[in-house]
Amino acid sequence: MGRTTSFYALREALAQPGCAVCRLTNIVTERYLDNLLWENVNDPGLRRAIRRARGFCREHARKLARPGASLGIAIISRDVLQDVLKSMEDARLRRPSGSLSLRRVRERSKATGATAGMPSLVVRLSPQTECPACIQAAKMEEVYLVTLLDHFLGDDGLMEAYGRGDGLCLPHFRQLLARVRDEALFEALVSVQRVIWERLTDQLSEIIRKSDYRFLDEPWGEEGDAWLRAIAVLAGSDQG
After folding, report:
1. Sorting pLDDT into bands at 50, 70 and 90, what band is 212?
2. CA 60 to CA 80: how far, in whole Å?
3. Among 62, 191, 207, 75, CA closest to 131
4. Which has the least CB within 10 A, 6, 53, 99, 200?
5. Same domain, 58 and 138
6. Within a domain: residue 16?
7. Closest Cα partner for 232 from 15, 23, 9?
8. Are residues 219 and 146 in the same domain?
9. Which of 61-70, 83-92, 119-128 has the highest mean pLDDT?
10. Can you say how many angstroms the Cα of residue 49 is from the centroid of all Cα atoms in its chain?
């Protein structure tokens, strides 16, 4: 099977600390946001998608804040807020039907998470589609996961590089295994990732051991930042 750009990107990322797919996806997302702010901020189709998404999710909204981005962010935010304000025109608090008991009104409000009589406005203010940056990230995650599966085994495959590094975080490893249909590939992935996480678990045990007053004088080794790496393994990383 021919090598692709994503193959070489994966091989390089596997040699770096942390989850390779997190790293590559974050790099691609940063480029996407850069292109949005400095090249595509006035693209009609993209602006429409951002309006429908009511802006970006919390994670990607924070990533928008970067030096020199004030104009692009102002243009995008004003566009979204103008659409939000338009949705709020003629909004009225409709009184619940007289046939509904007070108890039923309260039950309905609790179930919808909205004030009784306001569901239509809540819907209009809610995102109508997913965060555009999340959509882009998901597309690239799929590319890298499929590439990893296609090139894991075999001559000059990625298994050796995978085993030497940190492999994948738990969320991406789950996504990877869900795509596997070959038993040998499944067993190879589980075996290699198991060794990686056993190594990390041993390092966490060392942190716990050296935190005992009897061993406080022992110098720290590679386990020193294992607690930070464990957070990224279990939740994924937003660092490129």
Report:
1. confident
2. 15
3. 62
4. 99
5. no
6. no
7. 23
8. yes
9. 61-70
10. 19
